[in-house]
Specification:
This protein is an all-alpha fold. The chain contains 11 helices and 2 strands. It has a two-stranded antiparallel ribbon. The relative contact order is 0.17.
Length: 271
């Protein structure tokens, strides 16, 4: 079933093909939307009838039962090929520290925009990187403004930017010297990995928060990050041999899993 849907898998090798090209981005977004829709339906324990949450249409009986079982199973922890899921306690901690998590989210969007600008400046001779990342700069900055508006709407303050332990640990794995193609590959895969983890975090928030509006708010971010993840992978494949990209991506996934085991969940951090 994982092969058919190209969604939930247990190894980075198995996850590669369905997600590895930019062409897959629209499919990913559609699957994320389906995930969000099905999450909003659950069975009433008293009557056995399906009831609807947050005004969504209930799941119909003719939907593929294998898909339903997959959506409700523990395999959801392996979305996007990530080897470890987010600690379930993180959503509860984030909800308690809403001002802090929105502040950190805002700065994450800002850093995503500046990262794309840096890539454009560094690889200005690579037309596809310039063309593909230019609109992402605008989109990420728009996301920053959306989060800032959400803070203001709730009479919360944008706090100071904090140290991002997760990203700093990832940066230690990045190739700093040697071949320029290897350095470019690592920069693109680093961005892809951060987008993938962000997508997974947004999915957790969209499912676990008690605030209906914020659940919908983070669904939209989840869909966007899924498309960005595939974009960076696709750019890497444009300029680097696919087998080399695949091998290095597996190494990044393994390294990131080690970071996830090491870092304690914090409600004031998006990562």
């Amino acid at each position: 079933m994982a092969k058919e849907m190209g969604l939930f898998v247990r190894s980075p090798v198995a996850c590669w093909e369905p997600w590895a090209s930019v062409v897959a981005a629209e499919r990913i977004v559609a699957i994320c939307r389906r995930l969000a829709g099905n999450r909003d339906s659950e069975r009433d324990a008293g009557t056995g009838n399906r009831r609807t949450l947050r005004g969504k249409r209930p799941t119909t009986s003719n939907q593929n039962p294998l898909v339903l079982r997959m959506l409700l199973s523990q395999d959801t922890k392996n979305i996007l090929g990530l080897q470890l899921p987010t600690d379930p306690r993180w959503v509860n901690l984030a909800e308690i520290s809403l001002e802090d998590i929105l502040t950190d989210h805002a700065y994450c969007e800002q850093k995503a925009a500046t990262s794309c600008i840096s890539l454009i400046q560094r690889y200005s001779e690579k037309e596809k990187i310039v063309d593909e990342l230019s609109p992402i700069v605008t989109e990420e900055w728009g996301h920053f403004r959306l989060v800032l508006a959400e803070l203001q709407k709730r009479n919360l303050k944008l706090g100071k930017q904090r140290k991002d332990e997760y990203v700093n640990e990832l940066l230690k794995f990045e190739i700093k010297g040697g071949n320029e193609d290897h350095r470019m590959l690592d920069k693109l895969l680093l961005c892809a990995l951060i987008e993938a983890r962000s997508c997974e975090r947004f999915k957790r928030l969209s499912e676990g928060l008690n605030d209906e509006y914020l659940c919908s708010f983070y669904r939209r971010f989840m869909e966007s990050e899924a498309g960005h993840y595939t974009l960076f992978i696709g750019l890497a494949e444009t300029y680097i041999d696919k087998e080399k990209v695949r091998k290095r991506w597996k190494e990044w996934l393994k390294y990131e899993a080690g970071i996830m085991r090491q870092l304690a969940p914090r409600g004031d951090r998006m990562h």
